[in-house]
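Handout, section B. The chain below has 192 residues.
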Amino acid sequence: MSEHKPVTSKQTPANPLPGDTPLEDEIKSMVRVDHAGEFGAVRIYAGQRAIMGDKHSKAGLLRHMHEQEKVHLARFNKLIAERGVRPTIMAPLWEVAGFALGAGTALLGEKAAMACTAAVEEVIDEHYQEQRDKLNGADPELEAIIEDFQAEEVEHREIALKHGAEEAPGYPVLSGLIKAGCRAAIAISKKI
C-alpha cells in the first residue's frame, strides 16, 4: 500500500483567492478524472480490437497499447481506493462511449483507428502536463505516476502517427471531433 501523505497548508498557494479550490480537492479531482480517462482508454482499445480482431496488421500494436492502458487503469483503481476518491458517476456512459468510439473508428479502417489513438493521446498528453504543472511538487507519488503514464501516452500517439493516423479519410474532422469529445469528458469527469 502506498504511503500517501495528505496535502498540507504549506502546499497550497500563499495567497489563495476567494473561490479557489483547495489543492487537496484538486488532487482528488485529478485522481477521479485520470481514473475515468484510463477506463475510457481501455474501452476504446477493447472496441477497436473487437472489430479488428487479432489477425490484422496492427493487432500487435493495439494489443501492446491496450495492455499498457490496463496497467494504467489498475494503478488508478488502486489509487482511487487508497485515497478514498469517489469515481465519476459517468463511468457507465464512458464504458459505452469508449467502446463505441473504438469500434466505430475501427469500422472505418486501420488508419481511422490510428487517428483515434493519435487524437485521444494528444489530449491526454496535454491534460497530464497541465496536472504535473499544477502539482509542482505537492504530491510526488501522483506526479511520478502521471509522468510515467504520460510518457506511454506519448508513445501511443507516436505509434499511431507512424502507422498512418494522418492518412485516415477526413483526418482533420475526425481528429477534431475526437479531441473535443475527450476534452468534454475530462471536464465532466473532474466534477461528477
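Note. The first helix runs from residue 23 to 52. Compare this with the example in section A.
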